[in-house]
Specification:
The protein is of the alpha/beta class. The chain has seven helices and seven strands; from the N terminus they run H-H-H-E-E-E-H-E-H-E-H-E-H-E. The protein has helices at 6-16, 23-35, 38-54, 89-98, 125-131, 147-160, 185-193; strands at residues 56-57, 64-65, 79-86, 103-107, 138-141, 166-169, 196-197. It is elongated. Bound molecules: zinc ion. Zinc ion binds at residues 58, 60-61, 63, 69-70, 72-73.
Length: 198
């Protein structure tokens, strides 16, 4: 016999799909939502639908944005010959917060991870190589210092080297295994300044 209504079970099942939300958390959230005022629940649902419907990938750097070309790529004051490669939009935001970087970005949306079956063709790598046909002076690889991030950095470096374009890697100071988005702005700025050529 079902302890709860089918509606609750469905809500729990949908919430449990989210990353980091196990069965128990999903149940807790489901009951919390049911106890929320109806207009607040509608606001939450509407925010999710609006975000999904209006957010797309920037046609140049592939970050998540609500425009065809994101604010960074459409800013002519930025140095479009310098491209920083990051794993996701959150990492790009972390670097933007430092206010120290004047180039543009390329968002991979992941990192190479053979154990999860994520290969080079599963991230936005071909799109990066295509961008290099334009006038580019430097590619700064700012993937995380996890095994996947390092693997991705090595792979990209080998791919770009033959083109003669300068390839650099942000310095350590970003702790090993550290996720870029959790690192403070000073450390990020230092890691960028002390980048080394690969
Ligand atoms: Zn962009």
């Amino acid at each position: 016999m079902d302890l709860y209504s089918g509606y609750i079970n469905r809500l729990v099942a949908e919430l449990a799909v989210l990353p980091g939300i196990g069965g128990k958390s999903a149940q807790r959230l489901a009951f919390h939502i049911i106890n929320m005022p109806e207009d607040q629940v509608k606001k939450l649902a509407d925010a999710m639908i609006q975000a999904k419907e209006n957010i797309r990938y920037c046609s140049e750097c592939y970050t998540l944005t609500d425009r065809d070309v994101c604010p960074v790529c459409s800013n002519t004051a930025r140095n479009h010959k310098q491209i920083m490669v990051v794993e996701n939009t959150r990492d790009m935001t972390a670097y933007e917060k430092t206010g120290k970087y004047e180039g543009v970005y390329h968002v991979l949306h992941g990192a190479i991870n053979p154990s999860l079956g994520i290969g080079p063709s599963d991230i936005r790598l071909a799109e990066l190589i295509k961008r290099l046909e334009k006038d580019v002076d430097e590619v700064i690889i700012a993937t995380n210092s996890s095994i996947e991030g390092e693997t991705t950095a090595m792979y990209i470096s080998k791919l770009i080297k033959p083109t003669g374009i300068k390839v650099t890697r942000i310095a350590s100071g970003v702790p090993v295994g550290g996720e870029l988005e959790y690192i403070d702005e000073v450390t990020l700025s230092r890691a960028l300044e002390a980048r080394t050529e690969l």
